[in-house]
Write the structure tokens for this entry.
Amino acid sequence: MPDWRSYFPIIRDRARAPEFNSLFLFVTSRCNSLCRTCFYFDKLNSRDDLTREQIERLSATAGTFRKLWISGGEPFLRPELGEILTMFVRDNGVRNINLPTNGLMAEKIFQTIDYVLRNTSDASIDLNFSLDGLANTHDAIRGVPNNFVRTLATMRQAERRYQGERRLRRNVLTVITRENYGEVLRLGLQLLENTESSGHYFQTVRGGGPDASLQRMTREQLAELHRRLMPVHRAYARKLFAHLPAGPRHVAEMYYLGNLRLHFDLHERCFDAPARWPMACTAGQTSLVVDHNGKFRSCEMRPVIGDLAEFDYDVRAALGSAQMQREVAAIPQDNCWCTHSCFIEDSSKFSARVQLFEIPWAWWRQRWDRLQTAPLDEIEKFKSVEMA
């Protein structure tokens, strides 16, 4: 059983009054993939990326915030990415950087990560490798021959290079689609067994990508897949928190698994049509999305509402603008509830109800599902990490 006394520091840290917490920054429109799942496909490889000076102005006006979500394009195609990330850690107090990659440019990735680790001391990095299926499926979805093999090779190099570096988590991200649905579990089990990844996370297709057929699944299919993926998450939880003493370890595992199960619940609930979350969406209040060209939005799934150039690239001015106030008021009126995990996560941090009740309840339900219906072959395969 968890030591509930260890749970309260989490509550104090996360269930707090809404404040600007997260910047979603598209550092470049350049990309070397042709992903059929990409909601940003019609803006890629433009010639109007923000300049270094404009990004410096963003940092200078943003004040203190905790989470920097990097996007693109392929972020590692931004030449000065390491310097940009370090600037936000140094000048804005960023504590975590979320950094996705297709894994095709190992040396650029390592140069950037080395620079940030060398020039910062507090911030953690989630380096997220995209793998959307086994080899043939992943390559077909991504539009790059041998993408799977090349990404896996980069992951193995990263394992050797950063072994023991606790500030860097090396994760895998998978977008669930009609084409990979039947092999997502197999992919998860193979990566769990054969790599040293810190975690593996699964997201439903979102937005208006170039291939709408990839979204053709049923809610029931998604729910069944989520149920079968939970043993993978439980195995990662055991690995991720193995270094902690027993009490904090149990609490950390409970929070981690409950949070993931809550995300799965909301993915299922909102899969066919919007369904209200157990917390308010705080997009545009606690977070801001800045596109590669300085246009800004409350959420990646919402339309552009302004141009930072009109505000002299002042982040706080954009957040306090009349456009943003109208946008924040419109989100609940539009019944805008979605499956976007980044904004589920960001919004849940400011809800005492979610932190105190929804996440623990989701943990109990996934535990009950495990005892009642978890496939025996999966449990046996990972008995060494599942048994507690």
Observations:
- Confidence is low (pLDDT under 50) at residues 382-388.
- The longest helix spans residues 246-269.
